[in-house]
Each structure stands twice: as structure tokens, then as C-alpha cells.
TrEMBL record:
GO MF terms, alphabetically ordered: ADP binding
Pfam family membership, one: NB-ARC
UniProtKB keywords: Plant defense
Ranges where the Disease resistance protein At4g27190-like leucine-rich repeats domain occurs: 868-978
NB-ARC domain segment(s): 160-326
PANTHER family, per database record: AAA+ ATPASE DOMAIN-CONTAINING PROTEIN, NB-ARC DOMAIN-CONTAINING PROTEIN-RELATED
Keyword ATP-binding belongs to the record: no
Record's protein name: NB-ARC domain-containing protein
């Protein structure tokens, strides 16, 4: 035995060398297999984590990076290989002499394969998977639909020549920077937006990046906006590193160039600190900027060519005014006075739009006279770069607002920095504290009222849409005027937000007169130890840096304060200042993104109605908060450090209407759902909500288990809204929303208790968004017909993930026809549905909605069992899904057909005309997306995005008759489909058809990793037109020899991308010739 040990030891010594490695395969294969199993478990866990992140990113409408999908595909393939290896090869060997098989050749083979698999996993984990903590790029900014006014800023005849000259100079290699210069409100930003549109439509640059600079520029914010508009996010925190990162993004592809648009530049900007200068020198980008101040161009590293933006002509100004004011001014009674009003707007677009919108369709001549009189009598303050008539028009529109609440909302928006996304929810909470209307009993009623006010302010162009959810913006000119109005003595506002103040701002009048103050400080220092502001009702403070000190007597001189909002670095101490207890009139307190310790002093503020700690670092909500007997709203959103809510706090808040504690899961849970079991910890329990659950209007909570959610919560308020997460739910880091739809998310191991859970059943009835991820007994989740008590169904978004034993979602009606339960459904996501799911509906009709075979017979052939195609949407259901906008199907193992069209009446059909996005991934048995159906079918006219990934039984994408329907399609992506032979396949009866097939709006076509793809369309009976195609990416398609066998027109296409940073310019302007050139290059 010792001799054997010595021999083995010697072999091990040899095995560390390059030759001895072969011996290692023989001797170490058992330990290698153990290592492989350990690594295999790690890759399974990593794959699951990445998949969950992908699901969360898609749910948040982020764009999942293409390399992540490629990584997941590689992992799936490797997992299949290793499972087979462990199941067949390794398992077979263990049966031979307890694993010590004397067949040295077999043992050597096993050892070598094991090591190869280990290396493959390590490579996937270390080199690839480790980078996917964030699997997405930010979604491109949502297109805010242009209002009718936006169109008029670009169609002026007097400006067409300027726009064309700018476009011509952007093509000039010798010009690197261009500036549009003009006074505020003249339309510079709109011209820049029009130039951006023309640049994209004419394909002058590969990409366009847009950022707003503003009067007090933040270089890091500018960098972030530029990066996000290019579809990425900067990872570095500090300015210099971010500049290098942005430079790398701008120059990553030497064959592509970027137009950088910098809007609203007030002073010389250091473009080198931003990261743009060197990219300009390398001819990777150019800059277009807009400015009120011509002198701001002189101090730039690169001298721009300046184009002045002039006033509108008299005819243009009148035509714009007529469009804004409407048909009422065509009457003989108003025409003359309307022309006088238009003349007072001084040919300035912004003034014309605001006054025209204000007087639109007003037929009372006296109203017009009054408006004209006010415009003439206005005594505007002098604001740098702003025409007095613009000021007058905005002031007039403000004066004409019908309610004090509307005026208040407008002025509150100027309390935020320039170009800031103003949360409407802030206006709501200020509105509650300011008693907007005595007739509004709840916070929710105030919220609805404020949203209506904001909608009207947008209509009047006093506020603008924002890219962020539930936010608005103010035009910089409108904000300047709003601050001017708010600063008048009768309003008493102080707004100092231009730069972080080192010291408390001096004032030319006594602090006694101020009613509202909004300040941005570097940190809390250099301030008066005790401010005397006896009339101050609203104080909003933000700090750039975390403050280490805060004077205890700070609030002593502001006893009338009703609204206090302190953000970011205002607090960084263990307790609040003692003087906060003096604020007995305080109704709203918002401590946002603060570092907080002991907050028990807040419990003394007996009149407090709104209390928020959003995004703050706070560990405990103490028992003293329960003393706030008037509290209506408690907001603990995104308090990631929160560990404890003291038991009894919630039960004492007897007037609470709205509770936001999404993300906190450390609830005191009882051992029985009735709520009378033993409490498992000393935290607040949701049982505390029972006695006033009927008065709750809004509830957002996360609970780790259904045991934490009592069965007898009676949410009976007519306006009740909720967002409830049960289980280990992925929480996105996107924007917080307060005006959400009813959302229920369930992720649990066993759903057997749900059927008797009255709280869950009541929530199911009201849910608009439903997400299910249930391991077993998920058959208890059903949307039954109305007489069985679950309907009416209000679902607009349904997501089902896992649910291994889910059989069906619907019960058929008595006549066996599918129930019209999902008639409101807008989004459907199916992810990881198992083989034995029977269907969406249990109809006994032969055309039931079936996902897999039902009632399989034993001891018969597969062919006998497979009696019909396994379709997601058979023809008798499609018309009941008329509102469906998005469909995502991922890892539905048995799905063979998406749309079963056979049996549809061609003359009556007009189906799925709201569907805009279709995404199919990892469907191993998918054979058809559209199956059969009449060639004259109508529908799918608004599908914009079609993506198919890793569907390894799919041989084609669609047929000519379907292709002709997809007139709004903008993006096609087909990737990792091993059996895909052609994208467009011929269909019976189409042989003699010579129609041209056009894809009028497709901008991007991606064909990747398609080993059997030979062409887009192999027949010669159709020509093709792609008038909008800008990007085509083709790589890893080894059998591709041509695009089509007939002519194809691609006027906007400049070339073909064949890999990362690999771009082939068009050859002879022909796509076929370009592809053949690529093939020749590879061969050579």
C-alpha cells in the first residue's frame, strides 16, 4: 500500500508540469469531478442571478445589453453539456469498482473532459459573468410626445436658411463647434432640437448626445446626460475619471462620429474637463451649443462659428398666434384686437405661444381687451438676456390663472434648480400643508387635484413635460420670470440655487418679510445661529456636502413654519436639533437623502400631517412617532438602512391614510396568519393596520412571507391603491412613483394557502399589475368567471415566472368559449413556464388556449399524444386581447406557436393593432410566430419592435403576407437561432406575386449567430425597400452569401457592422455587393 502511495505521490509531482499534466488526468480526476460539481453549482447560481437581474431590468423598461444575452446563451449551452457529462459519463464510471475504474483510457478521458469543463466555467464566471452585476444599459430617454406648439418652432421660413447653413457647416471638416445665439424665448432650443432631428434623419452623424448646461453648470451632471443619451452610464464618481470615461465612449468606434449638443450655455465652458475636447481634436465629435450670451463663446478652447437667431417675421408671428389662439379670432369682432395682442408679443415665439394659449378660443372681447391692457401696462424687471415682452406675456398668463392653488403650484416650481425635474408629488404634499382646498378630505384627493392643475399649466406652456416619471420641468425663461414674481414683497420668496453658497445669503431686505425660502448651500456653516423669520411658512434647504454641525437653536426664529424640506447633506449627526420641537405649526416634514440618527424629537410635532424620509440613512423609526395623531402620510421609501419600526407605532397612527415602506421586510410576523400567534420579533406588525385598514387610501409595502400579511385586512376605501410585494422580490433602482397602479407581486414556495387568504383574494380582484413567481401549488391562482367571485378582472399587466404546476389561469364560460377576462390587458410576460402547464384557459373546446399537451396517454407514441400544435394565442382568443401592447415569452419549453391564425375570418379580422413590442427568447420548440391564417388578414399594424433570441427550432421569422402588415416596424433582431435558414419564407400562392415589400420605418436590423442563415429571402419574386434603414449588424452567420436575390433599396445605409468596432462601408451602394465583399475579405 505504501508503494502505491509513493507511486501516486510521484505521479502527482510530475502532474504539475506540462508533460505530467496527462498523468493528472488519470490520478486526479475524482477530485477534479468534485471541483467541477462545485463550479457547476456556482455557474447555476450566477446564471439565476443574472436572469433575475434581466427580468428586473426588463420590468423597469431598461435595455438589456446584448453581450448579456450572448453570455446567457453560452452558459445555457455549457450547462446542458455538463449536465449530460455528469449524468452519463461520470455516473457510468462510478458504477465501476466504486469509481476506481481500471480502464485507464476511460479515466484519462474523464479527467481531461472534467478539466476542460472547469476551465470553461471559470472563464464564464471570472471573465464574463463577474461583470454582470448590472445587466442593462439605461433605456433611451422616453420620447415625450411633442405638443402642437413644438411643431411651430421649426417650420418658420425665416429660419430654414439658418438651419440649413448649420447642417452644411456640420459637414465641414474645418468647423468643430457651432453656436446658436439669441435672447431668451426666441426659440434656440427648438432650433437645436430640429437640427438634431435633421441630423438623425439625414444620417449626418452616427449618434447625437444632448445635455442642458444652465446658468449654474454642474460638469458631472452634463457628463451624465451626455452618456445617458448615448445609451450608457458613467461608472466613475469623480470629474477627471468621468471625463476619461466619456472620452472613451465618444471615440470607441473610429468609424463613427457623434454630435454633442449643449443647450443653454451662459458662460465659457471647459469642454476638456467634461471629456469632449480631445474627442473633437480626433474628429470623433462636434459641438452645437445654444446661448443667450455671445461673450460666452469667446472663452472656449475652440472658437465656435456663431449663428444669430432672429425674431420672427410679421407674417410668421401672426400665423403662429392664430394657431395658438384658435378659430375664435377669425370673427370680425376680434380680428383687430387679436392683431394688437399679437403685436405686443414682439415677434417672440415663446411670448406668442404663451399668450395665444392663454386666450385660445375665448370669444369674449372684453377678455381680449383686458389682456391687451395688462400687456401694455406691464413693468417687467430687467432680466439678463430676456426681452421685456417675454416677461410681460408670462406674467399675464400667471395673472390669468383662475385659482390661488394654480398660482401656488406654479411658484412652487421655481423653488427647484434650473432644468430640475420637479416631482409632482412634492407639489401634492405642499398642497396638503397649504390647505389647497377645504373640500378635499384626503391626500389622494389633493393629489388628483394637483395633477389636474399641472396638466393645465403644461397646456399653457408654463410647465413642460419631463423624461422622468411624475415630474415636470420649467423652461429656463419661465423660471426666471416665476422667481421674479415670487420675489415680490407680497409673495415673499427667496430663491438662491445658482451655486452652492458658502455662507448664508445676504439680503437687501429684512428676513422678517420672507414667507418661503429655498437655498442650496455647500454645507451648513456660516449661517446665523438663530434666524428671525417670523412669517416664514416654507423652508427648503439642500447641501452639496454632508454637514457635520447643525445649530440647536436654528429653528427658534421661525415658529410659524408649516413646511420644512431638508435634502442631502443637511443632517449628518446622531440627533435632530433641539429647536425642531418649537415647530408646533409644522404640517409637512421631508428629510430626503439625509444621514439620520435619533428622530424621536419629531414625535413632539403634534400638527404634522406629512412625514417623509425618502432615500435617507435611518436605522429605526422610534415609538415616539406614534404620538403624531394627525399624521396622514408616512413615507419610508428606499430607506435601505432601516432595520426596525418600533412595535406599536403604526397602531397609534389612527388617522393614517397613506403608508410607503417598500423595501422594508423586517416586519414582526406571527406564527399564524389570523394574527393571534406569537410575534417572531420586536418590530411593528402589519396586524397593527387592521383596525383602520378600511380608511387606508394608499399602501406600499414589502413583506418577506405571506405569514406577515394578515388575512383580515379590509381595504374598503373607494380610492384604495396599493403596491404590495410578497417574498424575495427584485426591487429596481429606478424612479420612485407615487401615482402607481394597483400592483401585487407574489414570489413564494407554496401557494396552497392563498385560496383561503381573504386579503390576497381581495387584492387579486383589484390588481392592475400582477406578477407571479410560485414554486408549487400555483394552480390556486385563477381568474375565474364572474359568478365564481374573482372577476371583474382589471389586469393591464400580467407577468408569470416559474409557477411549475400552474395549469391554467381562466375558466371557460358555459358555452365553452374563452372568457373575455383579459380585455384590458396591455402587457403579458411569460417566463420559465414549465412543460406541464395546460394553458391560459381550461376550455373544453378543441381550440383551447394550450401551452402543452393535456391528458397524455401512457404507452402510446409521441405522435399520438401530440394531437395539435401548442399555441399561445389560438384564433378564438386573439380578438379578446385587442389592447395588448407588449408580449414577452422567455423559456416556455413547450411553446410551438405564438399566433395561431388558422380559422380567422379575413374580412372581419383586424387583430393585435395595439401590439408594439414582441420579444421571444429561449423557446426551444418554437416553430412558428405566425402560423397559417388567410393571406388577406389584417392586423399587427403598430408593431414597432420584434426581437427573437435563441429559438433553436425556428426556421424563418415571417412570410410576405405578414411582412406587409408590419408597416410601423422600427427594429428587427434575430440572434442565436441555430435552425434559422431565412428571415422571410415563401408561402403557398405567393409564387406569381411581384409586389415590392417595404419596411418603411425599420432603422435597425440585427442578425447574429445564425449558423444556417443563407439569406434574408431566397426567392426572386419580390423586390425590397428599406427607406429608413440606418444600422445593419451581421456577424457569426457563416452560410450567408447574399441578402436577397432581387433588388433592395437602402438609401440611408452607410455600411454593415460585422462585430465590435468592425464596420464595412457600403460597396457600390449595394447591400448584396457589400455582403459579398465581406465574405471575400474573410476568405482572403
Amino acid at each position: 500500500m505504501e508503494i502505491i502511495s509513493l507511486i501516486v505521490g510521484k505521479i502527482i509531482d510530475y502532474s504539475v508540469g506540462p508533460v505530467g499534466q496527462q498523468f493528472g488526468y488519470l490520478v486526479l480526476y475524482k477530485s477534479s469531478i468534485a471541483t467541477l460539481k462545485e463550479k457547476f453549482q456556482r455557474i447555476l447560481e450566477k446564471k439565476e442571478a443574472v436572469q433575475q437581474s434581466v427580468i428586473g431590468a426588463q420590468r423597469n423598461q431598461e435595455v438589456v445589453a446584448s453581450e448579456v444575452n450572448t453570455w446567457l446563451t453560452s452558459v445555457e449551452k455549457k450547462i446542458e453539456e455538463i449536465e449530460k457529462f455528469l449524468e452519463e459519463d461520470v455516473k457510468a464510471n462510478t458504477k465501476c469498482l466504486n469509481g476506481w475504474c481500471l480502464d485507464l483510457k476511460l479515466r484519462y478521458s474523464l479527467g481531461k473532459k472534467t478539466q476542460k469543463n472547469i476551465r470553461a466555467i471559470v472563464e464564464l464566471l471570472d471573465e464574463e459573468g463577474g461583470r454582470y452585476d448590472r445587466v442593462y444599459n439605461p433605456a433611451p430617454p422616453r420620447e415625450v410626445r411633442s405638443s402642437s406648439t413644438d411643431q411651430w418652432f421649426k417650420d418658420f421660413e425665416s429660419r430654414k436658411s439658418t438651419i440649413q447653413n448649420v447642417l452644411n457647416d456640420l459637414k465641414n471638416e474645418d468647423i468643430d463647434m457651432i453656436a446658436l445665439w439669441g435672447m431668451g424665448g426666441i426659440g434656440k432650443t427648438k432650433m437645436a432640437k430640429e437640427i438634431e432631428r435633421r441630423v438623425k434623419s439625414e444620417n449626418l452623424f452616427h449618434k447625437v448626445a444632448f445635455a442642458t448646461v444652465s446658468q449654474s453648470p454642474s460638469l458631472t451632471k452634463i457628463q451624465a446626460e451626455l452618456a445617458e443619451s448615448l445609451g450608457t452610464r458613467l461608472q466613475v464618481e469623480f470629474l477627471h475619471g468621468r471625463a476619461n470615461e466619456l472620452y472613451s465612449i465618444l471615440t470607441e468606434n473610429e468609424n463613427e462620429n457623434v454630435l454633442v449638443i449643449l443647450d443653454d450655455v451662459w458662460e465659457p465652458l471647459d469642454i476638456e474637463d467634461i471629456g469632449v475636447y480631445q474627442a473633437i481634436k480626433e474628429k470623433s465629435c462636434k459641438i452645437l451649443l445654444t446661448t443667450r450670451n455671445k461673450e460666452s463663446c469667446n472663452g472656449m478652447r475652440i472658437q465656435p462659428k456663431i449663428f444669430p437667431v432672429e425674431l420672427l417675421s410679421e407674417e410668421e408671428a401672426w400665423n403662429l398666434f392664430k394657431e395658438m389662439a384658435g378659430d375664435c379670432i377669425n370673427s370680425s369682432d376680434l380680428i383687430s384686437i387679436a392683431k394688437e395682442v399679437a403685436k405686443e408679443c414682439a415677434h417672440l415665439p415663446l411670448a406668442i405661444v404663451i399668450v395665444g394659449r392663454l386666450l385660445s378660443n375665448k370669444s369674449d372681447k372684453n377678455e381680449w381687451k383686458a389682456a391687451l391692457q395688462q400687456l401694455k401696462m406691464s413693468r417687467p424687471l430687467d432680466i439678463n438676456g430676456l426681452h421685456s415682452k417675454v416677461y410681460s406675456s408670462i406674467e399675464l398668463s400667471y395673472n390669468y390663472l383662475k385659482s390661488d392653488e394654480a398660482k401656488s403650484c406654479f411658484l412652487l416650481c421655481c423653488l427647484y434648480p434650473e432644468d430640475h425635474d420637479v416631482p409632482i408629488e412634492h407639489l401634492v404634499r405642499y398642497g396638503v400643508a397649504k390647505r389647497f382646498s377645504k373640500g378635499l378630505d384626503t391626500v389622494e384627493e389633493t393629489r388628483v387635484y394637483v395633477h389636474a392643475i399641472v396638466k393645465n399649466l403644461r397646456r399653457l406652456y408654463l410647465l413642460l413635460n419631463s423624461y422622468k416619471y411624475e415630474c415636470v420641468k420649467m423652461h429656463d425663461v419661465v423660471r426666471d420670470v416665476a422667481i421674479s414674481i415670487a420675489s415680490k414683497e407680497e409673495n415673499g420668496f427667496m430663491v438662491k440655487l445658482d451655486k452652492g453658497l458658502k455662507d448664508w445669503p445676504p439680503t437687501d431686505r429684512s428676513y422678517d418679510s420672507y414667507t418661503a425660502m429655498s437655498l442650496l448651500l455647500e454645507e451648513m456653516k456660516g449661517h446665523p445661529t438663530e434666524l428671525k423669520c417670523p412669517k416664514l411658512q416654507l423652508l427648503q434647504l439642500s447641501c452639496l456636502n454632508h454637514s457635520k454641525t447643525f445649530p440647536d437653536n436654528f429653528f427658534n426664529g421661525m415658529k410659524e413654519l408649516e413646511m420644512l424640506s431638508m435634502k442631502k447633506g443637511c443632517f449628518s449627526s446622531t440627533s435632530l436639533p433641539l429647536s425642531i420641537k418649537i415647530l408646533k405649526n409644522l404640517r409637512m416634514l421631508n428629510l430626503q437623502s439625509c444621514r439620520l440618527g435619533d428622530v424621536s424629537a419629531i414625535g413632539t410635532l403634534g400638527n404634522l400631517e406629512i412625514l417623509g424620509f425618502p432615500n435617507s440613512e435611518i436605522e429605526e423609526l422610534p415609538l415616539e412617532i406614534g404620538k403624531l395623531s394627525r399624521l396622514k402620510l408616512l413615507d419610508m421609501e428606499r430607506c435601505g438602512s432601516l432595520k426596525r419600526i418600533a412595535a406599536g407605532v403604526l397602531s397609534d397612527l389612527s388617522r393614517l391614510e397613506e403608508l410607503y415602506v417598500g423595501g422594508f421586510k423586517n416586519w414582526g410576523c406571527t406564527t399564524m396568519m389570523e394574527g393571534n400567534g406569537e410575534v417572531t420579533n420586536n418590530n411593528a406588525s402589519l396586524v397593527e393596520l387592521i383596525h383602520y385598514s378600511s380608511q387606508l387610501v394608499v399602501l406600499e409595502i414589502s413583506v418577506p412571507s405571506i405569514l406577515c400579511l394578515p388575512k383580515d385586512l379590509h381595504f374598503s376605501h373607494s380610492d384604495f391603491r396599493f403596491h404590495i410585494e410578497i417574498g424575495d422580490i427584485y426591487r429596481s433602482l429606478g424612479d420612485t412613483r407615487y401615482f402607481f397602479k394597483n400592483t401585487l407581486e407574489l414570489k413564494m414556495e407554496d401557494a396552497s394557502d392563498l385560496e383561503e387568504h381573504q386579503t390576497i383574494r381581495s387584492l387579486l380582484k383589484k390588481a392592475v399589475v400582477l406578477r407571479l413567481d410560485i414554486a408549487k401549488n400555483s394552480k390556486h391562482i385563477r381568474f375565474e368567471k364572474e359568478q365564481k367571485g374573482i372577476l371583474p378582472c382589471n389586469l393591464k399587466r400580467l407577468e408569470i415566472c416559474g409557477c411549475e404546476d400552474l395549469e391554467y389561469l381562466l375558466e371557460a364560460t358555459s358555452d365553452s368559449s374563452p372568457p373575455n377576462t383579459f380585455h384590458l390587458l396591455e402587457s403579458l410576460e411569460l417566463n420559465g413556464l414549465p412543460r406541464h402547464m395546460i394553458g391560459i384557459c381550461n376550455s373544453t373546446d378543441s381550440i383551447e388556449i394550450t401551452l402543452t399537451k393535456q391528458d397524455q396517454k401512457e404507452n402510446v407514441s409521441e405522435t399520438e399524444n401530440q394531437t395539435k400544435m401548442l399555441s399561445l394565442f389560438p384564433h378564438n382568443l386573439v380578438e379578446s386581447l385587442e389592447n395588448l401592447q407588449q408580449l414577452l415569452a422567455v423559456r416556455c419549453d413547450s411553446l410551438e406557436v405564438i399566433f395561431e391564425l388558422e380559422g380567422l375570418n379575413a374580412e372581419e379580422s383586424n387583430i393585435f393593432n395595439n401590439l408594439t413590442k414582441l420579444e421571444l427568447r429561449y423557446l426551444p420548440k418554437l416553430l412558428h410566430i405566425w402560423k397559417k391564417g388567410p393571406r388577406e388578414i389584417k392586423g399587427f399594424n403598430y408593431l414597432r419592435r420584434l426581437e427573437v433570441w435563441t429559438c433553436n427550432s425556428l426556421k424563418c421569422l415571417f412570410t410576405p403576407s405578414i411582412a406587409k402588415l408590419l408597416v410601423k416596424l422600427e427594429r428587427i433582431a434575430v440572434c442565436h437561432c441555430n435552425e434559422m435558414e431565412e428571415i422571410l419564407a415563401k408561402e403557398p400562392g405567393d409564387e406569381e406575386n411581384r409586389d415590392v415589400i417595404a419596411f418603411p420605418l425599420v432603422k435597425v436590423l440585427t442578425l447574429q449567430h445564425l449558423p444556417k442563415l443563407e439569406c434574408f429571402y431566397i426567392e426572386d419574386n419580390h423586390a425590397f425597400e428599406w427607406p429608413s434603414l440606418e444600422i445593419i449588424q451581421i456577424n457569426e452567420c457563416p452560410k450567408l452569401k447574399m441578402f436577397v436575390s432581387t433588388s433592395t433599396k437602402t438609401p440611408m445605409l452607410k455600411g454593415v457592422r460585422t462585430g465590435y468596432k468592425v464596420f464595412q462601408p457600403m460597396v457600390e451602394g449595394d447591400l448584396n455587393a457589400t455582403i459579398q465583399h465581406i465574405i471575400k475579405e474573410k476568405i482572403s
